[in-house]
């Protein structure tokens, strides 16, 4: 099938022409290449170039294929298309919960696609799929490009998906050029990164890094709200049974020891407004901010809304409202974030004051110590708020905290950051700017990603590209085809640069 | 069966003795009577006294039987016993949803009991049960004592139940004394007062008053959360099918025209703390406060909790939190109440800022105009809060209101209020207080009751007795046997006084 596609589109003459251009960088304006459809080309393996033999200029000239990337990305979004927000064929969000039937379909496509690129595909016990394009040397671990194909229930087409698709595009681009690497280059699809169905995000890279026990992950139950979605079963399922049900419970132990990596690179939309606001094209991600997830429960007293004066209430929901307002004040004053995503009030009757409220609290900050300070202050303030509500009747509310997840600040690896920085500068050189370097910046990730866990075991870094209005976890999440391609070009170069770094003498 | 019970317990000699005492009020210390078990007595109808022939002192001496009332009340709570909160045999709440099997059982008992008291029993199309003890005159409508036998899913033993049982106790007390009335005296059990299973409270008195169409009530579906309770069926049922299933779909049209009343009296626990706090025994209810129920929806924008600065958010839940805090401030400043019982945040994910929040708002106040003022102010303030959240990104939140229910202030009938006031003062005279009158107060009902609807068609008023900590809609809801008996004595006297008022020349 692979050779058929080639023969339909390209001619050996064209391929030779472009290969020549690549070897003669002065002839090869990257601007022309980015807009020239003839850049889709292929050479046979016998004619292969080797990554370590390229000149610096040749590496800097490497580009992903914008149109093909966009086509592949939206093709893959047919499985799990979500809420429509515009009239265009791709103007829908995504609803592809981890291990749903739609997730199975896109996984099947991922395997078919990477196998067609001569990749060796393995699936581990967490359903992580590793597709490796072999390098010249078989005694070394591959460098991976990784992210996730699952989405939020009301997610978009780029968060995670762009990362995996840029990996596939990198392999296709390398194939186009007949580019061989010393070590292999892999693409990994991590399972349930979002944590939207099974409520621990990045759980499967966490198991791979041996930071989360396999048994805990296998026994993790889907959240009840998700169970009622049409894409999930009606009764809460464990990850293990969900993996079995879609036939993605692999036999390879989920561990960095069994599936080693030389490095992990991840391309992602920024999910924030900084790049867009500054008109910048690439964020060189140097770190991930610290975050802590809590579940809190406020216990007050159910009582009648019509007959109970305010001073006779221990209204757990009123206490919650004050806490949420306070959380923003405190977090803000320390340059941190504090957010509530889930709230549940019981018993849930119009004319009964809620006696029990549960909610999640997500505290984030650029330094572990700042998160500590915010948590400490909020524990004190929440206790004070609870103590006041119900005090006149001698039945004050009380609040209990449970820590669900603690992710300290992650600093990415300097070698990976260097590769991304050089690649970013090379790619943005295409622009008309008189100071192209100003189109890149170093940036800290606000969100967690699978790279947080890979960084515990192997050199890792990330690349951010702008997204419209900084919006994500929303159907209208959007990254232009140009920005997607810029990111894919950067990750393509970064992987090649890392390979050269490893094996150049 | 009725005569058997009499012969087992009482002797004619005793009955005559007590009757003599009643006619000679100076001999009849009400204190003695309240604690003297011999007060359980009976006379034959031939020896009957007539209500209109009693002296004022004789009326004031009428008392319910405390022990029998307590026994009957807890006996009736065997059907639908709920959550246990103590070790005593009656230390459980109630879970007797309208038209459940448990409700059928207690209805059967109600009919058997009132028939044994020589009542004529009719059942209407809403399953309302009317048991009438005939008076001397058959050409006039009876005076009714009414309330409800259904409960909240986590309710207690007094809300509604005490009202119906006090009616039965009044009939028994009248029988004890051979007391005949001019007009008949009835007891009515209204169907689904709570609105907990079928989500319109007081629906069946509403149909009786022709304020709610029969068809709407018959087609009303049980709420899904209740459908999953063991006492209800697994698939949502309509009121009509639920009535049929337990064989309580009566043939009598549900209307005040078909089942006329001369007046309606209702005894209820206060469901608030005022009586208990003030050490008072009886509340003479003069009115029911106005209330309005709304559903509100705040629309903001879903976004990532980790990557979105506060100033880039349109956080619908944060807007909600500010609104709830503000609602209490505004309501409080106008002597009103504002409560949120239900809140739902979507999409409901730890790391997604909620873009949509729906909640209920219950505003109550002593005057319609005050509720108007609070609503108007909150509409303005909520708009302002919504407009600020998301303003920096040009996507402010917006808030929409839907009115679900509007119940203006109800003023009870002065004739009924007078009867209750006089009766209350007579009954509390038993106390040791040097100023017994201070043990009663006029009070406004915070909650809705079936009396709200009966008051649209016939003279109505209510009696409140204290409940522990003002707590209701809770398994630990509690009213002492003494307080129950006080209330039952007041309603017994009130009915007799009303009968006398109607027929004394």
UniProtKB/TrEMBL annotation, chains A, B:
Cited Gene3D superfamilies: 3.30.70.360, Zn peptidases (3.40.630.10)
One Pfam short name: Peptidase_M20
Keywords (A to Z) from UniProt: Hydrolase
Domain Peptidase M20 dimerisation: 291-387
Molecular-function annotations in GO: hydrolase activity, acting on carbon-nitrogen (but not peptide) bonds, in linear amidines
Keyword match ATP-binding: no
InterPro entries from the UniProt entry: Amidase_Cbmase, Bact_exopeptidase_dim_dom, Peptidase_M20, Peptidase_M20_dimer
Superkingdom per UniProt: Eukaryota
Family from the record: Belongs to the peptidase M20A family.
Name this polypeptide is given: Amidase
Organism whose genome encodes this protein: Aspergillus violaceofuscus (strain CBS 115571)
């Amino acid at each position: 099938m692979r050779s058929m596609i080639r023969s339909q589109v390209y001619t050996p003459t064209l391929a030779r022409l472009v290969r020549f251009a690549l070897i003669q960088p002065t002839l090869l304006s990257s601007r022309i290449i980015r807009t020239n459809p003839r850049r889709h080309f292929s050479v046979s393996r016998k004619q292969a170039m080797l990554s370590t033999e390229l000149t610096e200029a040749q590496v800097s000239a490497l580009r992903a294929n914008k149109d093909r990337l966009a086509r592949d990305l939206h093709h893959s979004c047919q499985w799990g298309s979500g809420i429509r927000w515009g009239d265009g064929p791709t103007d829908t969000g995504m609803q592809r919960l981890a291990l749903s039937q739609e997730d199975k379909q896109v996984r099947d496509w991922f395997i078919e696609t990477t196998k067609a690129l001569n990749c060796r595909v393995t699936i581990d016990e967490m359903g992580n799929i590793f597709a490796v394009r072999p390098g010249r040397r078989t005694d070394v671990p591959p460098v991976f490009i990784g992210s996730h194909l699952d989405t939020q229930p009301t997610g978009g087409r780029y968060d995670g998906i762009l990362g995996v698709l840029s990996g596939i595009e990198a392999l296709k681009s390398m194939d186009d050029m007949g580019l061989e690497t010393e070590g292999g280059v892999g693409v990994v699809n991590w399972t349930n990164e979002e944590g939207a169905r099974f409520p621990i995000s990045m759980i499967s890279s966490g198991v791979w890094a041996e930071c989360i026990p396999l048994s805990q992950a296998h026994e993790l139950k889907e959240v009840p709200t998700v169970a009622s979605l049409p894409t999930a079963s009606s009764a809460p399922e464990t990850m293990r049974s969900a993996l079995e049900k879609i036939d993605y419970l692999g036999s390879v132990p989920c561990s960095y020891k069994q599936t080693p990596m030389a490095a992990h690179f991840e391309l992602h939309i920024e999910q924030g407004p900084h790049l867009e606001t500054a008109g910048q094209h690439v964020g060189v991600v140097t770190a991930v901010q610290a975050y802590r997830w809590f579940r809190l429960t406020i216990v007050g007293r159910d009582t009648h809304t019509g007959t109970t004066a305010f001073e006779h209430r221990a209204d757990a929901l009123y206490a919650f409202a004050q806490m949420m307002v306070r959380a923003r004040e405190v977090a803000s004053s320390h340059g941190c974030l504090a957010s509530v995503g889930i709230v549940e009030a019981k018993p849930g009757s119009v004319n009964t004051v809620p006696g029990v409220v549960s909610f999640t609290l997500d505290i984030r900050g650029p330094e572990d110590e700042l998160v500590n300070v915010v948590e400490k202050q909020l524990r004190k303030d929440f206790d004070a708020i609870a103590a006041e509500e119900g005090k006149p009747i001698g039945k004050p509310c009380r609040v209990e905290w449970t820590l669900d997840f603690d992710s300290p600040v992650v600093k990415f690896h300097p070698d990976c950051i260097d590769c991304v920085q050089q690649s970013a500068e090379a790619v943005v050189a295409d622009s008309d700017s008189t100071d192209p370097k100003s189109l890149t910046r170093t940036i800290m990730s606000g969100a967690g990603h699978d790279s947080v866990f890979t960084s515990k075991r192997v050199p890792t870094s990330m690349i951010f590209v702008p997204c419209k209005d900084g919006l994500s976890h929303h159907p209208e999440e959007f990254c232009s085809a140009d920005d997607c391609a810029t990111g894919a070009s950067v990750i393509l170069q970064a992987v090649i640069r890392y390979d050269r770094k490893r094996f150049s003498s």
